[in-house]
Amino acid sequence: MNIILSKFSGYCYGVKRAISIAQNSIEELGKVYSLGSIIHNKRAVEKLENQGLQIVDDIDKNYKNILFRSHGVEKKFYNFANEHGVNIIDTTCTFVKKIHQIVADKYKSGNEIIIIGNKSHPEVIGINSWCDYTAQFVGDEKDVEKLKIDKNCNYVLVFQTTFNIEKYEEIVSKISEKTENLEIFNTICNATKKRQDAILEISEKVDMIVVIGDKSSSNSKKLYELASSRCKSIFVEDCSELDQSMFENVKNLGITAGASTPDFVIDEVIKYIQDLN
Ligand code: SF4
């Protein structure tokens, strides 16, 4: 079996940065609390927990240090930490920070915010907090019909960083039909786009694609959606979910991994498949 590993797979810039800040903080400060999972990957989080990171569901004034994850947290947690003297270790990715700033500035100057993405995803909940939870949401083309548009209002469109690039044009054009008072910020991140483009290219050359990522990772799920729309694909968290029968009659195999999948998990999967050969 010939294996083609996507040239863009595994940790993105934002995740690498978050993990490195977390590791340095643990070394320097000892115990560090992380508000929610620092990234969407159980294996990577387990490693950090063994080094001294503790995942918590809520902030507490007794914590000396609180780490904010790469896909961002709600504004209220910054306010709480600042009011109670809790030291913030902010690993929010710069691309997500940029969306927070756009939303905060545009909301302050009187615009209505529309977020294109999954409204229950923590990144999107975080973004919505920067306009006091007033945003409307579009998860897919069908939701455009449900938007409440007032002709006297100006609207600002931002995208969840991991939104599917293939749906961008269609959604923008449908919303543009409903209002002309629209300012669009394409905030889909480059890492996502590169991984999605690369997997579309690979799908032309292979019989099957293995997507490696945590089931809670939005960008990994999107990669799987794209891959499976083009060819037979499987979505696994690590090599424990693989077995030989999955690769019957596969001559050319593509492999990709979400932006929060660590190299050691990708290497394990590649080794497992090479051993089948
Ligand atoms: S996927 Fe993009 S926005 Fe998300 S952490 Fe990585 S670089 Fe940042």
TrEMBL record:
Binding residues for [4Fe-4S] cluster: 12, 93, 189
Coiled coil: none
Protein's pathway: Isoprenoid biosynthesis; dimethylallyl diphosphate biosynthesis; dimethylallyl diphosphate from (2E)-4-hydroxy-3-methylbutenyl diphosphate: step 1/1; Isoprenoid biosynthesis; isopentenyl diphosphate biosynthesis via DXP pathway; isopentenyl diphosphate from 1-deoxy-D-xylulose 5-phosphate: step 6/6
Residues bound to dimethylallyl diphosphate: 40, 71, 121, 217-219, 260
Keyword tags: 4Fe-4S, Iron, Iron-sulfur, Isoprene biosynthesis, Metal-binding, Oxidoreductase
Cofactor(s) in the UniProt record: [4Fe-4S] cluster
Reaction catalysis annotation: dimethylallyl diphosphate + 2 oxidized [2Fe-2S]-[ferredoxin] + H2O = (2E)-4-hydroxy-3-methylbut-2-enyl diphosphate + 2 reduced [2Fe-2S]-[ferredoxin] + 2 H(+); isopentenyl diphosphate + 2 oxidized [2Fe-2S]-[ferredoxin] + H2O = (2E)-4-hydroxy-3-methylbut-2-enyl diphosphate + 2 reduced [2Fe-2S]-[ferredoxin] + 2 H(+)
Active site: 123
Record: residues binding isopentenyl diphosphate: 40, 71, 121, 217-219, 260
Annotated GO MF terms: 4 iron, 4 sulfur cluster binding; 4-hydroxy-3-methylbut-2-enyl diphosphate reductase activity; metal ion binding
Its EC number(s): 1.17.7.4
Record InterPro entries: LytB/IspH
Residues at which (2E)-4-hydroxy-3-methylbut-2-enyl diphosphate binds: 40, 71, 121, 161, 217-219, 260
Co-factor binding comment: Binds 1 [4Fe-4S] cluster per subunit.
Pfam family, one: LYTB
Protein's GO biological process: dimethylallyl diphosphate biosynthetic process; isopentenyl diphosphate biosynthetic process, methylerythritol 4-phosphate pathway; terpenoid biosynthetic process
Record family assignment: Belongs to the IspH family.
Cited NCBIfam families: ispH_lytB, PRK01045.1-1
Function: Catalyzes the conversion of 1-hydroxy-2-methyl-2-(E)-butenyl 4-diphosphate (HMBPP) into a mixture of isopentenyl diphosphate (IPP) and dimethylallyl diphosphate (DMAPP). Acts in the terminal step of the DOXP/MEP pathway for isoprenoid precursor biosynthesis.
Protein name in UniProt: 4-hydroxy-3-methylbut-2-enyl diphosphate reductase
Organism from which the protein derives: Peptoanaerobacter stomatis
